[in-house]
Amino acid sequence: MMRTVLLNDFKRQWEETGAAVMTAVGQVGESGRYILGESVTRFEDALASTLGLGYSVGCASGLDAIEIALRALDLPLGARVLTTPLSAFATSLAIIRAGGVPVFVDVDARGNVDLDRCERLLEQRRDVSFFVPVHLYGHPVDLAQLGRIKERFGVHIVEDCAQAIGASASGRIAGTVGDLAAFSFYPTKNLGALGDGGAVGGVTDTLRPACMSLRNYGQSARYQHDRLGLNSRLDELQAAVLVSAFLPRLAGWTERRRRIAARYRAGIANRLVHLPPPDSDAQPVWHLFPVLVSAEQRQAFQEEMMRAGVQTGVHYPHLIPDQPAMRGAPFEIVGELARAAEIANGEVSLPIHPHLTDEEADLVIAAVNRWHGR
Ligand SMILES: Cc1ncc(COP(=O)(O)O)c(C=O)c1O
After folding, report:
1. Fewest CB atoms less than 10 Å from the CB: which of 142, 206, 242, 275?
2. How far is the CA of 65 from the centre of ligand 1 (A)?
3. Domain residue limits, the chain
4. Which fold has domain 250-370?
């Protein structure tokens, strides 16, 4: 029987990593220390040096990482935070939880927040002094332009790197341009734990004590609470698995994703299916491989792919400001969100995990190329 090509294949990941994971788990068990011990520190150091950061602070999720970053930057209550309408809901949820008001602007052809629009808005709106760009699908925003925006307007930037761990552009690594960077280790992410996890990191140490305090009830020292923090600690178990079994494989996994992306680019030729724009000087990490079809054809395309044995996804079907939860929440929309809506209505994600074989990638290509619309 034909096996479906999956969007993520955790069984194969386990086949590759299971033995290393079990060793790491055993070591934590034997250590008798399960919270904020040696494994968390080892992982934080290894992650920071992998990503060109000065430090990283483990926490419970990517959502918390963004909230902790904004609170470490002393985001004032009601402050306007420029961001994207096309992302995981968590990006805006973190802004709102931190007391901010998301200000949504449209995205570019790739689905990333449109930095030219951001610049124009910042020229006019001196009240917008925080910015949370998302490196969507693993493709970094133009990091040189992001750096210029930071200098020119003095905005505080938290880079949402949940989908873009290790991505780079203009010789800079995603996460090293803003004041702080947020990462997610949700299992489907390029570096995914066996459960939830996240980290916040920065280049200079200035905000490190605030991040460390905020993840741990706002403690600056034992039983000394200077802030109203969270319980958002990364477990020793997850940290041990990440540092021993997964982080050492990340570069290889990323390389594999890039090869599959190159294979898709070379092989897919169907006028009804639009590939992501070429990469100019960016090195994306291909968390997802997004293609665009027309809104009317999307469902039929996904059904046809499923019949051909290919699982697909949609990232994301609804813009954040359109979500029911936003009805009672504070936010602003500046300009039209036309491009974001077009992507929300027509995006389809093809499988691109590191355990996908060349044969499976070719099966995906053949299925896409065979499709002639409904
Ligand atoms: C872009 C983006 N930001 C934030 C998050 C939140 O991460 P987490 O699920 O670890 O809270 C995710 C993942 O879900 C994401 O894709």
Report:
1. 206
2. 9
3. 10-244, 250-370
4. Aspartate Aminotransferase, domain 1 (3.90.1150)
Q: What is the CATH number of domain 10-244?
A: 3.40.640.10
For 3-59, write each residue's pLDDT tens digit: 899 999 999 999 999 999 999 999 999 999 999 999 999 999 999 999 999 999 999
In the chain, DSSP assigns E strands to 55-59, 80-83, 101-104, 128-132, 156-160, 168-169, 172-173, 180-184, 198-202, 219-221, 224-225, 282-283, 289-292, 332-333, 347-350
Contact 111, 290 (CB under 8 A): yes
Atom of ligand 1 nearest to the CA of 135: 1
Q: What is the pLDDT of residues 139-198, one digit of tens each?
A: 999 999 999 999 999 999 999 999 999 999 989 999 999 999 999 999 999 999 999 999
- 182: Cβ below 6 Å to ligand 1? no
CA distance 9 to 163: 17
Phi, psi of 274 (to 5 degrees): -100, 130
